Write a sequence for this structure.
């Protein structure tokens, strides 16, 4: 269409439309004729015919057609115009679409900017709040520190003033005579002073106040001077010294020289052994001076002792801990020091420390401060010098690693020891700098040059990384790391006498054996030389020469000779007993296929069989492991590695024999015994991972195999690399050499003509050692609120944090639909939670249900839907998920979120879902699948213990019958694991119940149960039929019905009963009321009618209808006749005097039996004047008064019994009534309008929640003893459910 408006087009509108219409007609007819000429001719004929018929009308239309010459040009122009018009339209559409996309992009960009700005503001607000909170905490900490310092200084000054004026206030002799001066008590007290502790402060102070120690001053001083005090006990010792000083004048004079005598040994520069003694005593001396115990000379003596220590320790700084402790505890009082941390904190909040009276004069303080600062200056220089030494040694070791491929063990140990000592010195120097408010020196950093040969490998990370924490970790997972590194310490288990002598013997032979071991592989001293040549890519000639030398030697198989036992006859009995124990151990060793068993075996050998002959036999047994038992090699390696610290000769001899066997198998060059060769190299690899076999020896074996890389050597090299190649490649000590050997192997693979199997083996071994870089899995990005919810429910939730998590969950914005849906999703996916914490999630949901009932209902629906989906899909990969979901359903019943009907419906669904009545195999529940049995046991183990009374008990008994019948329809025999699981469940729920031994008995019990149910239902319904249920005869006889059909029908019946019970329970309270299985302690005699009553209430929906029968007419006729006779007889009887129903009281309130002549003795009360007189009256047993008395007494007895029964029921139901009242009150509170609440503990605003917070589990009814709850919750962190409150 044209872009011009209609008014601007040429010609009048009518003509234009007519012309366009004519052109379109002509154009269409021309196009049709061009396509089909015959059709055109026929059309022409028709047109001619039309012309003859229509006359002049057809001629007029013929004039509108273009001529034959003008037809092609006109159509081409029209097509061109149409094409241009379409192009213009497409361009306009594209332009419009482009503008819309640009506008949409601008809107999206604007939205993102707004969202980013909002997020930035929220983050800024969070940062400001966090900063504000942190400042408040710091300010509070500063104020607390200031108050603590003020109190401490005040206490010190009070003690000092008391001690300074003690001379004037000391008691006289007469006052001391009144105290206890007994030798026994005084001697005992003095002995206690040698082991003073802070816990004894009050006891010793009270004892001191009761004793007269005038004659024991010297002994007390000696005890204080020789006491082995700890840093925490110094304040108690100072307190006791103050008490002595305040009472006895000679104490301080005697104590001063005794304390100085401790420092008479001076400073030992070579091996300081008295550092800890100096550390405690110096602080003790300083605090005595601060406390004012030493009146004269104490300050000068302390300054002299401190100066001697500082000047004598300027170089080694071995007494740094003593100086640091003295400065920290006494520097503020003796030198006026204020730590940098305290000064910074106080100045930050404009707080000032209250100035107190100094303990020492200013000149004395300056002397102490000068000595401390001088010591710190020398310590700074020492720190810088040690750092330079450590960096120098580390640079040398790195150079050695790059050139030789390994660093000697002694140099590694030296570097590690120096680095450890430097770290300790740096830590102490930092602490002393903070105490003295000094700056640390500028420590030079060691520049590590980057080398291309290192390949960018971080050796520290490769060596120290744990399992799975980085791509260069030594082990594949945490279990592997634990197996190879977490070995038991036999030295802490086995007495030292059993391996001390062996260590001394082996220490002498270690050097020679190691040299022999090294020379045997390197051959003619080629150990370090060939490694250097290999590092420089010139090792081929050296290896060839080594191989030729070894080939010249005659290789023989390893033969282990049994040692001769020349033990004397007196030791024959002990040797034979240990030999028998060793025989038993060697028989048991092939069955030790886990860590605990192999660790026990190593401990037994070291404890009971550690003799030289037994060690040799053990080495032979370990060496001669069957070549088909490759699975035993890791455990044998762990066995040897565990014994190595105590018995190093076993590992050394075994390594020698394995290396000799390896050389024999390699240089024999036979193409047989491939299994023995594989066993040898794998054994070497396992010992290498346990660090029993030296790494250089393993790499040497690999180098020998690579030199002649063909036939069996290829398989041996690949097996060795698959066993320990990754360990060697990722170890910092062997990384470079392993990398060079791997490159050599890949070059030889490319150069040699190998078959496909060998090429695959080589590639697998190489990629196992050096896996290719795999891109990391992208982590799903969730909103911050979603991450917070996952953190609360999946990570933080445990037994201790249930209340905290509940409070946080209640604070969530539940009005936000997305947050609400995500919370429901997290609550439903219980398999993402730890299995032992599922009950915590149910606990949180129970507390949340009070406020968000819709959430709880949707979560329960989701759990039930997951259970049904799991049965429909029946995938093995979802087994753990299904177990978790079923466990959560049971915990929800325990926390009163679901009723018993839901549990029984689920149990019967496990048995009947997907099973056909004819017993044919089902796809969703095949006969060889036992997982539904596991689900049933899981659900019953979780909540089945509460079905132990009332109708729930009967329902569970009935279900257990059908459950056993279901088990018989599985393939027999049942696996042992399932059998043990079933026995545990039955023993837990019904300890006295015996399982059915055969399928026929189980089927008969099920048929009897169904027949009983039919009979009872028939009696209740009489001739009516319950809607939706078949009649008694519709299903045929139970004997004709198959077992699975019986299960399916029982499942349907249970669904019907549960739906009816649900409808009935829907009218009552949801929580806290009486449920199935919770009738409040019903007596045994009433339990029999409970099931019948429940069935009547469930089945009899309508009122009973009357049915006419002949017996009713006879009964009515007899009843009318009886009533007429009674009325007639009543009219004819004479009126009688009314008889009192109450009998006359019996004397002494005793009930007498009738006499021999059948008479009762009653007392008749008559009145004589103002007195009442009793007269005995004999009344016949058949008289009205005796009969009325007897009936009255019997009614009293029955009334008493009824009252006692009601009282008993009242007491038993007391707890249940409390729950109902609490629940009713909570419902009333929820129905009231929302008003501000006063929280006493725990709620939205920081305090715990509303009054109803009882989310405990169901109480355990019945007398099951203490063992039953413990067995239920043995795997649960909750305590055993006893009474209601826990």
């Amino acid at each position: 269409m044209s872009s011009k408006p209609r008014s601007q087009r040429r010609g009048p509108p009518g003509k234009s439309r007519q012309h366009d219409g004519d052109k379109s007609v002509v154009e269409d007819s021309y196009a049709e004729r061009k396509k089909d000429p015959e059709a055109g001719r026929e059309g022409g004929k028709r047109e001619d015919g039309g012309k003859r018929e229509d006359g002049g009308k057809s001629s007029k239309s013929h004039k509108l057609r273009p001529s034959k010459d003008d037809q092609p040009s006109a159509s081409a122009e029209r097509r061109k115009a149409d094409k241009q018009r379409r192009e213009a339209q497409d361009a306009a559409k594209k332009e419009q679409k482009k503008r819309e996309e640009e506008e949409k992009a601008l809107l999206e960009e604007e939205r993102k900017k707004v969202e980013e700005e909002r997020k930035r503001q929220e983050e800024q607000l969070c940062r400001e709040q966090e900063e504000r909170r942190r400042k408040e905490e710091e300010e509070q900490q500063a104020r607390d520190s200031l108050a603590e310092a003020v109190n401490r200084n005040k206490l010190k000054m009070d003690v000092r003033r008391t001690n300074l004026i003690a001379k004037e206030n000391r008691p006289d002799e007469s006052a001391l005579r009144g105290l206890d001066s007994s030798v026994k008590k005084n001697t005992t007290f003095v002995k206690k002073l040698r082991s003073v502790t802070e816990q004894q402060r009050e006891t010793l102070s009270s004892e001191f106040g009761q004793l007269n120690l005038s004659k024991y001053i010297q002994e007390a001083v000696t005890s204080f001077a020789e006491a082995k005090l700890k840093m925490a006990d110094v304040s108690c010792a100072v307190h006791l010294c103050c008490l002595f000083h305040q009472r006895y004048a000679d104490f301080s004079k005697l104590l001063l020289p005794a304390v100085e005598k401790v420092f008479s040994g001076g400073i030992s520069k070579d091996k300081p052994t008295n550092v800890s003694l100096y550390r405690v005593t110096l602080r003790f001396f300083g605090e005595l001076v601060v406390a004012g115990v030493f009146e004269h000379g104490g300050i000068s003596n302390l300054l002299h002792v401190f100066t001697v220590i500082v000047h004598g320790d300027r170089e080694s700084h071995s007494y740094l801990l003593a100086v640091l402790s003295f400065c920290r505890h006494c520097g503020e009082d003796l030198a006026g020091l204020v730590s940098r941390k305290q000064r910074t904190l106080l100045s930050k909040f404009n707080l000032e420390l209250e100035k107190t009276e100094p303990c020492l004069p200013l000149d004395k303080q300056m002397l102490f401060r000068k000595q401390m600062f001088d010591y710190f200056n020398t310590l700074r220089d020492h720190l810088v010098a040690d750092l330079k030494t450590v960096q120098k040694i580390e640079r040398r070791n790195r150079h050695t690693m790059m050139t030789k491929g390994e660093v000697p063990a002694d140099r590694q140990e030296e570097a590690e020891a120096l680095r450890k000592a430097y770290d300790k010195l740096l830590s102490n120097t930092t602490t002393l700098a903070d105490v003295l408010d000094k700056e640390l020196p500028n420590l030079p950093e060691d520049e590590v040059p980057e080398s291309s040969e290192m390949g960018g490998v971080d050796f520290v990370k490769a060596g120290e990384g744990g399992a799975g924490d980085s791509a260069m970790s030594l082990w594949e997972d945490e279990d592997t790391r634990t197996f190879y590194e977490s070995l038991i310490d036999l030295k802490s288990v086995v007495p030292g006498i059993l391996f001390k002598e062996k260590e001394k013997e082996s220490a002498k032979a270690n050097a020679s054996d190691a040299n022999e071991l090294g020379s045997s592989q390197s051959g003619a001293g080629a150990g370090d030389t060939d490694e250097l040549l290999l590092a420089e890519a010139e090792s081929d000639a050296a290896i060839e020469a080594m191989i030729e030398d070894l080939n010249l030697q005659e290789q023989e198989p390893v033969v282990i000779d049994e040692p001769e036992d020349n033990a004397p006859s007196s030791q024959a009995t002990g040797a034979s007993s240990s030999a028998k124990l060793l025989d038993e151990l060697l028989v048991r060793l092939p069955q030790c296929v886990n860590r605990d068993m192999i660790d026990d075996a190593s401990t037994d050998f070291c404890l009971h069989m550690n003799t030289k002959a037994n060690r040799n036999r053990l080495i032979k047994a370990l060496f001669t492991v069957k070549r088909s038992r490759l699975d035993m090699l890791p455990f044998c390696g762990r066995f040897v590695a565990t014994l190595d610290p105590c018995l190093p000769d076993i590992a050394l001899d075994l390594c020698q024999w394995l290396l000799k066997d390896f050389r024999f198998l390699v240089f024999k060059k036979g193409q047989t015994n491939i299994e023995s060769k594989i066993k040898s190299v794998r054994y070497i690899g396992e010992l290498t991972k346990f660090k029993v076999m030296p790494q250089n020896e393993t790499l040497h074996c690999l180098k020998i195999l690579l030199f002649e890389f063909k036939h069996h050597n290829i398989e041996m090299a690949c097996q060795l690399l698959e066993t320990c190649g990754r360990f060697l490649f990722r170890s910092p000590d062997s990384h470079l050499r392993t990398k060079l050997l791997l490159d050599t192997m890949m070059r030889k693979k490319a150069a040699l003509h190998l078959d496909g199997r060998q090429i695959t083996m080589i590639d697998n071994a190489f990629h196992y050692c050096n896996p290719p870089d795999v891109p990391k899995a992208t982590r799903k990005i969730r909103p911050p609120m979603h991450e917070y919810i996952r953190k609360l429910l999946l990570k933080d939730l445990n037994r201790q944090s249930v209340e905290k998590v509940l409070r946080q969950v209640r604070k969530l914005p539940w009005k936000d639909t997305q947050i609400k849906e995500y919370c429901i999703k997290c609550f439903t996916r219980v398999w993402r939670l730890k299995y032992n914490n599922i009950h915590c999630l149910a606990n949180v949901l129970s507390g949340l249900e009070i406020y968000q009932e819709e959430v709880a209902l949707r979560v329960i629906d989701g759990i039930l839907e997951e259970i049904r989906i799991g049965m429909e899909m029946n995938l093995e990969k979802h087994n753990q998920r299904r177990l978790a979901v079923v466990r959560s359903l049971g915990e929800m019943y325990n926390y009163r979120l679901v009723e018993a009907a839901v549990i029984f419906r689920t149990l019967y669904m496990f048995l009947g879902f997907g099973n056909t009545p004819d017993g044919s195999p089902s796809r969703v529940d095949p006969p060889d699948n036992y997982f539904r049995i596991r689900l049933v046991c899981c659900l019953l183990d979780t909540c089945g213990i509460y079905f132990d009374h009332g109708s729930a008990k009967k329902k569970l008994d009935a279900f257990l019958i059908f459950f056993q019948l279901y088990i018989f329809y599985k393939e027999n025999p049942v696996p042992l694991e399932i059998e043990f699981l079933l026995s545990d469940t039955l023993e837990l729920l019904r300890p006295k119940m015996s399982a059915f031994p055969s399928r026929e008995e189980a089927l008969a019990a099920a048929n009897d149960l169904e027949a009983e149910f039919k009979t009872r239902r028939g009696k209740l319904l009489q001739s009516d039929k319950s809607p939706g249920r078949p009649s008694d005869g519709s299903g045929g006889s139970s004997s004709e019905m198959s077992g699975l059909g019986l299960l399916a029908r029982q499942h349907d019946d249970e669904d019907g009963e549960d739906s009816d019970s649900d409808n009935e329970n829907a009218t009552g309270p949801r929580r806290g009321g009486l449920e199935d299985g919770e009738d409040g302690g019903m007596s045994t005699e009433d339990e029999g009618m409970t099931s019948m009553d429940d069935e009547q209430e469930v089945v009899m929906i309508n009122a009973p209808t009357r049915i006419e029968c002949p017996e009713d007419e006879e009964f009515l006729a007899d009843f009318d006749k009886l009533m007429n006779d009674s009325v007639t007889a009543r009219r004819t009887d004479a009126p009688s005097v009314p008889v009192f129903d109450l009998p006359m009281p019996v004397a002494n309130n005793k009930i007498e039996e009738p006499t021999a002549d059948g008479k009762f003795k009653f007392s008749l009360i008559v009145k004589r004047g103002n007195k009442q007189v009793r007269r005995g009256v004999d009344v016949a047993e058949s008289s009205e008064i005796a009969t009325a008395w007897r009936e009255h007494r019997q009614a009293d007895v029955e009334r008493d019994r009824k009252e006692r029964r009601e009282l008993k029921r009242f007491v038993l139901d007391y707890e249940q009534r409390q729950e109902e009242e609490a629940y009713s009150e909570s419902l009333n509170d929820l129905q009231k309008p929302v008003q501000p609440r006063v929280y006493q503990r725990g709620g939205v605003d920081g305090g715990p929640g509303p009054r109803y917070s009882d989310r405990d589990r169901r109480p355990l009814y019945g007398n099951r003893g203490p063992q039953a709850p413990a067995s239920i919750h043995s795997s649960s962190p909750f305590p055993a459910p006893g009474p209601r409150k826990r």
